[in-house]
Amino acid sequence: MAFKSTVNRTHLRLVREVEAIGGNVSASASCEQMSYTYDALKSYTPEMVEVLIDNVRNPAFLDWEVKEQIRSFVHMANDAFGRRVAKLLGDVFHVLLLVLLKTPLSVVSDREQLFRDDWGNWAARCRQVNHHERALLI
User: What is the 3-class SS of the chain, one letter each residue?
Assistant: First the structure.
């Protein structure tokens, strides 16, 4: 909720003030600290300090801004969860193949060769893989 509306400024006004001097604002948080940064030319230091103090001391926490941030966070969390599930399923599949085949897996990434050859030639090539490894097409 950094650099959103404050008691003294709307979010739009804040954005316009930052853009007017060619500045860039950012914020980051960790477990025990919060960092607000404002990058611009040195000659604009008084304006930058005033904006930083206003954002730290007078946040407005408007209902619609809070709801927008919650919606954004939920969307990012769901997206990240979906990627983690897909990776987990891929890892489970890999382990299952290792257990079922009882041999290490190697990756064959020559898709173009697969599509140039007919199925019989490809099957013959797969049989040429030594008995210590199996080939997976990716």
Answer: CCCCCECCCCHHHHHHHHHHCCCEEEEEECCCCEEEEEECCHHHHHHHHHHHHHHHHCECCCHHHHHHHHHHHHHHHHHHHHHHHHHHHHHHHHHHHHHHHCCCEEEECCHHHHHHCCHHHHHHHHHCCCCCCEEEEC
Contact yes or no for 24/18 (Cβ under 8 A): yes
Q: Is the pLDDT assigned to residue 69 strictly greater than 60?
A: yes
* Token pair listed for 57: 């001391």
How, if at all, do strands 105-108 and 24-29 pair? unpaired
Query: Per the confidence metrics, is the pTM higher than 0.70?
Result: no
